[in-house]
Amino acid sequence: MTRWSRVALAALIGLAVALPATAQWKWRDKRGQTQYSDLPPPPGVPESDILQRPGAGGARRAPVATAPASAASAAPLLAARASDPELEARRKKAEQEVADKKKAEDAKIAATRADNCVRAKDQLRTLDSGIRIARVDAKGEREVLDDAARAAEGRRMRDVIASECK
Question: Whole-prediction pTM value?
């Protein structure tokens, strides 16, 4: 290998090592200390304190905010940038949507429990009335409940009532 090719190879390696350093943000924080990061500075940093931006020649460009994929993933991003009124409104809207979904789910569960409670009480009343009860088994044959089966079904209905009727 000639001397010229060694110099060119060393220059290429040096350039390759230095390129990632150009994709750095540089700014002064509130205490006046210089900060370096591959992420943009926090939203409270004034434009005059941003010393270097990544990209072509450190040109000053506003950071591009990306839209979050879902309401659940939006909360941490929006909380971090709460100084923007639009982002604050989005965060509140996302929180309200989550609260509304939970409220609807809780109402649905409560309605199902109430229905189960009414059905179990009706079934227990029927069992306690003493009338003959028949049901169809897995083979499709009709079977009449004897006293032991009636007592077992009564215990099961009381357990359902205890768990669902609160």
Answer: 0.43
